[in-house]
C-alpha cells in the first residue's frame, strides 16, 4: 500500500506498534486467499481456478468469475511487480470473448441457468492483483478499450490483507452507457418529463464526482456505479421519484420515512441494502453523505 502505515494499539501499555507490510511468499498464496473470499473482496462470484484454455491457445487463467452485474471477470495474480501481467490478462480476455458459449456453460454449471442467461458481454473485466505496478502499467491500461482494474495488495501481520485500486478503466462499457442513457431519458419523458431527466442527471453527476475510478455499468433494470464492486445502483425513473440502492448498512442509518428504507432481504433491482428515494434536487443534496459513505465502503 503506497505510503500507508498500519499500527496496532497496545491498550495494556498505552503504546503503539507498527504492523509491517509484506508480500506473499509465493503467488499462489495470494490467489488462494482471494479465491476463498472473492465475493467479499471483489464483489465477484468465484467460478474456476487455473482454467485451461485448450491445447491450441495453450494458456491457464488464474481465476474466472462473474461480478454482481453479470460481467465475466478474469483475475490474474503476481507476487510482486511483473510487466507482463496486463498483456497476459488481455491475452486471456481475447480468448474469453471468442469462447462465450464455453464460459456460459461454466456459469450454468456453477451458478445456474438464470445467471448464465444474464451474462453481460458488453463489459468483460480484467482484474490484475500484484505487489505493485509501474507508471507504465497505469498508462498502458488507459490506452486499452477494455475494463481493467489494477489492484495492489499487501499482507499485514498474520491475518490482515490490504487491497488498493491503483487504476481502473471502464473501457468498452462506454458505448453501452450512451445507448442506455438515451433509453433512460426516453422512459423519463414518458412518465414525468424533463424534471426526472434532470434529477437522474444530478444523481449521475453526484455519484461520478465522488472520486477517481468510478465506472458505470448498464443493465436493463438499473445502472450500477462501481469501484472494484458496486457502491450504488440507480433504477430508471418512476412516475414521481428515483430509487437508488446503496451498500451502506441500514443499521448505521437513521431511517427517514419516504426518504430511506431498509431493503435487506427484500428483492429489488441492483445491489445494496439501503434504498434512497429521491423526488427533488434537495433530496439529492440530502443523500450526499449516504453516497459518500457507500463509496468509501466499496
Characterise the protein shown here.
- With 298 residues, the chain is an alpha+beta fold.
- It contains eleven helices and 15 strands.
- Strands 3, 4, 5, 6, 7, 8 and 9 form a seven-stranded mixed beta sheet that branches. Strands 10-11-12-13-15-14 form a six-stranded antiparallel beta sheet. A two-stranded antiparallel ribbon has the order 1-2.
What average pLDDT do the residues reach?
89
Order of helices and strands: EEEHHEHEEHHHEHEEHHEEEEEEHH
By DSSP (H or I, 4+ residues per run), the number of helices equals 11
Number of strands: 15
Radius of gyration: 21 Å
What is the end-to-end distance? 17 Å
The largest sheet, given as strand count, sense and whether it forms a barrel, is: 7 strands, mixed
Shape assignment: globular
Low-confidence stretches: 173-181
Instruction: Tell me the helix content.
Output: 25-40%
Amino acid at each position: 500500500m503506497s505510503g500507508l502505515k498500519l499500527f496496532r494499539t497496545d491498550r495494556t501499555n498505552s503504546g503503539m506498534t507498527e504492523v509491517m507490510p509484506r508480500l506473499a511468499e509465493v503467488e499462489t498464496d495470494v490467489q488462494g486467499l482471494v479465491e476463498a473470499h472473492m465475493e467479499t473482496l471483489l464483489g465477484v462470484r468465484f467460478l474456476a481456478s487455473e482454467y485451461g484454455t485448450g491445447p491450441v491457445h495453450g494458456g491457464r487463467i488464474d481465476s474466472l468469475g462473474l461480478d454482481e452485474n453479470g460481467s465475466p471477470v478474469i483475475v490474474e495474480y503476481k507476487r510482486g511487480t511483473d510487466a507482463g501481467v496486463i498483456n497476459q490478462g488481455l491475452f486471456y480476455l481475447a480468448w474469453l470473448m471468442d469462447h462465450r458459449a464455453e464460459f456460459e456453460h461454466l456459469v450454468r454449471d456453477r451458478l445456474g441457468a438464470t445467471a448464465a442467461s444474464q451474462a453481460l458481454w458488453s463489459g468483460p473485466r480484467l482484474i490484475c492483483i500484484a505487489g505493485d505496478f509501474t507508471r507504465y502499467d497505469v498508462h498502458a491500461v488507459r490506452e486499452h478499450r477494455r475494463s481493467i482494474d489494477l489492484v495492489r495488495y499487501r499482507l499485514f501481520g498474520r491475518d490482515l490483507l490490504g487491497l488498493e485500486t491503483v487504476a481502473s478503466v471502464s473501457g468498452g462499457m462506454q458505448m453501452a452507457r450512451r445507448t442506455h442513457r438515451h433509453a433512460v431519458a426516453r422512459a423519463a419523458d414518458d412518465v414525468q418529463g424533463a424534471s426526472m431527466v434532470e434529477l437522474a442527471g444530478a444523481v449521475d453527476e453526484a455519484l461520478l464526482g465522488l472520486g477517481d475510478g468510478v465506472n458505470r455499468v448498464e443493465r436493463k433494470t438499473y445502472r450500477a456505479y462501481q469501484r472494484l464492486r458496486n457502491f450504488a445502483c440507480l433504477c430508471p425513473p418512476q412516475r414521481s421519484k428515483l430509487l437508488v440502492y446503496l451498500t451502506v448498512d441500514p443499521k448505521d442509518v437513521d431511517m427517514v420515512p419516504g426518504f430511506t428504507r431498509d431493503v435487506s432481504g427484500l428483492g429489488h433491482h441492483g445491489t445494496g441494502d439501503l434504498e434512497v428515494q429521491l423526488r427533488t434536487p434537495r433530496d439529492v443534496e440530502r443523500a450526499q453523505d449516504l453516497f459518500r459513505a457507500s463509496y468509501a465502503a466499496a
